[in-house]
Amino acid sequence: MVDSGGSRGNTCNMQGYHQEPQNPERSVRYGGGTQLHTGVQQFMAGVYAWMSAGLLVTAAVVFGLSRDVNTLMMLFNTPLYYVILFGPLIMAWVLPAKIPSMDRGVAVALFLVYAGLIGAAISPIPLIYSGASILGALGGTIGLFAGMAVIGFVTKRDLTGVGQFLVMALLGAVIASLINALFLHSGGMSYVISIIVAIVSAGLTAYYNQMLKQLYMMHGSQGNLAINGALALYINFINLFLSLLRLFGSSRD
User: Helix axis angle, 225-248 relative to 187-219, nearest 10°?
Assistant: First the structure.
C-alpha cells in the first residue's frame, strides 16, 4: 500500500505569505539589482540545502527500517500504521500555514519529523522494488526535478494560475489515492493516479521555484520562508519519485 498511486498524503500549499506580481522596484530595498540577484541565489541555495536535509532524513529512516522486517511488521500491523498514514497528511496541510509564525528551531524540527514520517511510510520500498529500479527512479526524479526547477526559476511567464490548478489536481489525486489504498485496491486506478501525480509534481516544481523567488524579492527570507519552501519542494520530489517508481519500477520477485 505504500506506493498505491504514487502519493501518500503529500500535498503542500504555500500559505501564510502574500504574493504579488514581480516588481523590479522592490530591489531598491535590498540595495540594487546585483545585490538582489545574489540574495536570491543564496536564498534558493538555503532552500535546497534544507530540502536535501529532509531527503537525507527520509533516506536514513528507509534504510534503517527496511533492514528489520520485524520492525516493519510492527509498524504496519499495529495502530502505528494510522499515525504513519495520516500523520504526514495532517502535517502537510497544517505546517505551511503555521511555519511563518514559528520559532525557526521548531519549524526545522517539525520539517525533519515530517521527513522521518515519510521515510517510515515508504520504508518497505527496498523490499518491494529492485535496487536498479529504485536507482533508476531516483535518477529520473533528479533529472526531471532539476529541469523543471530551472524552468520555474528563469521563465518570465506567470505560473500562478497553472500552479493553483495543479495544487487542486494534486489534492484530488491524494484523495483518490487514499480511497484506492483503503477500499478499492485497484491496480489500474493506482497506475492512472501515478501518471497524474508525476505530471502535477513536475509542474508544481516549476511553480514553487518561481513563487519562492518572487516571495523572496517581495519580503526577503522572513517568516521561515526557506523552511516552508524546502517543505514544498521536498514533497514534490517525493511524490515525483514514488510516481516514477510505481510507473517504471520492477519488483524484486
Answer: 160
Query: What cell was used for 230?
Result: 524546502
CA distance 248 to 250: 7
Predicted TM-score (pTM) of this structure: 0.87
Transcribe 137-206 into DSSP letters: HHHHHHHHHHHHHHHHHH--S--HHHHHHHHHHHHHHHHHHHHIIIII--HHHHHHHHHHHHHHHHHHHH
Span 110-169, pLDDT tens digits: 999 999 999 999 999 999 999 999 999 999 999 999 999 999 999 999 999 999 999 999
Number of C-beta neighbours around residue 143 at 10 A: 10
DSSP helix/strand/coil, 60: helix
Backbone phi, psi, residue 145, to 5° = -60, -45
Residue 129, phi then psi, degrees to nearest 5: -110, 150
CA separation, residue 217 to residues 36, 106, 125, 167 (Å): 7, 25, 40, 23
